Amino acid sequence: MTITSARPELSSYAQQYADEGFVLVKGLLSKEEAAYYRGRSHDLLAQLNRKDDPTWQSAMGLADGATRLQHLHDAQFYDAEFAKLLVDPRFTDVAAAVMGVDNVQLHHTKLFVKPPENGSPFPLHQDHPFFPHQYHRVGAAIFHFDDAPVEKGCVRIIPGSHLDGPREHDPEGSFHLLEPAFETATPQPAEAGDVLFFTYLTVHGSGVNVSDEARTTWLVQYRDPSDPPTVKTHEWSLGQGMMLRGVDPTGRSNV
Questions:
Q1: Which domains does the chain have, with CATH numbers?
Q2: Beta-sheet pairing, 243-245 with 104-114
Q3: Which ranges of the chain have pLDDT less than 70?
């Protein structure tokens, strides 16, 4: 029995991903699981107590006044519970289906918390210029550990924007697009437990968290191991090249 016959919803996910460049999978995690990971995320950030703020300089024009952001690369190297989630078939089967491949390889992960009232936005961009690959079989999954309505600064997407291929970005203050306008992107409000999958060519960003609650997400960037990078970047990311599903047919020659 194939994965798609065992989970027929995967075919519809793959079709939307191909047509629009993204798919929001509702309830991939239960509400209880999402709350559990939210707690571990905030506990981990409090334990590490790091003061760096990854807010992009290019995001300054999207907010009135200063904003803040908390983050952590490679959470799975600090807490084994995140490592379990990386290889959970509920996630990896969708990642494989939307890319149209059998094998899924880790590129990197980032934990983000947008604090209440002034959580930092991200301007519209593609992920491609940060780590370009030859065949563009690279994607992202954003796990929502709490609700992310528009007022919390949810992700915004330009549907179908991946079909035009890589775009020219302004590198000043981190890669971002000068057009289209941020307001033209479609908000993707999500609930705790939802996971948003999108290609690294999909134009996306997110707004300011103006609510009175934090927005907690975990970003997992994944790829087809047969798709070689064209530029060596993110080599400092711990665990890059870890197989999340299947095998690496290249013998790690692309890592």
A1: 20-245 (2.60.120.620)
A2: antiparallel
A3: 1-6
